[in-house]
Amino acid sequence: MEDLTGRRLVVVTGASSGIGLAAAVSFACRGDEVVLVGRDPARLQAAAERVRETSGARPELFRADFAVLDDVRGLAERLRDAYDRIDVLANNAGAIALQPLTTVDGFELSIQANHLAPFLLTNLLADRVGRIVVTASGAHRYGGLDPADLNKPLRRYRSMAAYGTSKQANILFAAEAALRWSHIPTHSFHPGVVRTRFANDSRMVAFGMRFLPFRSPEKGAETLVWLANQDPARLINGAYYYNRRPRRPYRKAADPRLAARLWEASATAVGIDG
Known about the structure:
Elements: E1 9-13, H1 18-30, E2 33-38, H2 41-55, E3 60-63, H3 69-82, E4 88-91, H4 109-125, E5 132-135, H5 159-180, E6 186-190, H6 203-209, H7 217-229, E7 240-242, E8 245-247, H8 256-270
Helix pairs in contact: 1-2, 1-7, 3-4, 4-5, 4-8, 5-8
């Protein structure tokens, strides 16, 4: 793995377990200062202990629930107070809702937790972020994004379709961010099929996942860490990666006009200037 960067400050959301925790451990072992963001305080503490035991470094912890946009605004404010520079922002936090759920902000849970919340966080921190990596998914093939109606999945709800729509939004967000903030290297990636806590919440999902080609969280985190460590000149800004290679996403996630419309709709939804 080529690594032309020095010691950095790396913020990882969704860092309590799975891909996020595996990436945080890798960054800490490399010598980076790592900030873990998660929803559950007990799981955050356990993750911090895992990072400390593995790397010898004690990460900083920030709690935020991405199902609450005020939590995201508060997180951004606390990060801004704590750090003048965030070298890498790893937007990894995610959720899959197995039934139709609406957040306190009025949005379908998947689109808020997986897209609107990181979109808001990134916009609020953009003036001090050096690089952005977004955890997307091959599940974007199931998405049916409509920027004019971000709650469309709530009608005739299907959990994978809602999740896929949010992952489609991740890829479009990264591509549009690379255009709007050309000075900030931004990439999205598919981690592969990783056994995560998603399966713990549903017998049906757990049963179905038994037949999928699993990889470990560490393997799933490899492309995230690689994208964060590579010389940006060797990467395609705004591109979608899988197994350290650029891949063309499905057409529904490769439409620049849709990406621009999504950005404007998202800015309106979270109450910021587009």
